[in-house]
């Protein structure tokens, strides 16, 4: 099976200068005036709603040091530290531009910043963190894409990652069907986090295994390929995540896993306005377009809460 390597490293280090065109759910819910808040049962920002949800599975009294990898504009960590000032925040990012934005957002709070690549950090370096967060960014990590195309990394990098596939097949009994794209970077990071014996890990990203509840079937078209799909963005491509592989890695490493969709902690206010917007094949207003996009993301995004047994 032939692969080419998709990597976003060069883009994030040398080219990224805005997130305006890549609107994450976290960023969309941050402004108090955001119309996205109006279609949810709670109008709290993303980080607040996530923190309260994670409190069901994470004993925050036992958490002191939190590391967020690829923290975007810093909004999630801001909400966590405001809710729980006892936390020591740590931001790790490969992008100098985003790290600068995080420093602005988190000014005055207890935060340490690292301009580093998570793929180049060892388990020993990570072992002192109690909680590691990677929100809406696993698709930025290297993916081995089945077929013939140009590598966005070097031939050496491509060979390295293809050799790592055998490790995951043997250690975790993972199997890949013919033509399957492999989230090798996401698997590598989780493998290191588990070997660091981090108490709690939170991961999320667009999933290739998503489903929707029966009540939304007449309104929302969401199919699952079970094969990581390409998402074309400005200057780079990302890939959706096959969370079943990550779940198997975590459980093999003696972790409990809670897996679900963003709608679990961002419950939808399924009112007439939302139903009308979802029925529109082509939205007639900007608000309807926003509703369609957010509702899709509530079910397309999966998360995993991983807790050491």
What is the CATH architecture annotation? 3-Layer(aba) Sandwich
Q: How is the CATH topology named? A: Rossmann fold
Structural class: alpha/beta
Q: According to CATH, what is the class?
A: Alpha Beta
Shape descriptor: globular
Count of DSSP-assigned helices = 11
Query: Please, what is the CATH homologous superfamily?
Result: Vaccinia Virus protein VP39
Q: Hey, roughly how much beta strand do the residues contain?
A: 15-25%
Distance between the termini: 37 Å
What percent of the residues sit in helical stretches (DSSP H or I)?
Answer: 25-40%
Total number of domains: 1
- Secondary structure tally: strands: 11
Q: Ranges with pLDDT <50 over ≥5 residues?
A: none
Radius of gyration: 19 Å
> Strand sequence of the main sheet, in spatial order?
4-3-2-5-7-11-10
Secondary-structure element sequence? EHHHEHEHEHEEHHEEEHEHHE
Query: Largest sheet at a glance?
Result: 7 strands, mixed
Q: Please, what is the average pLDDT?
A: 94
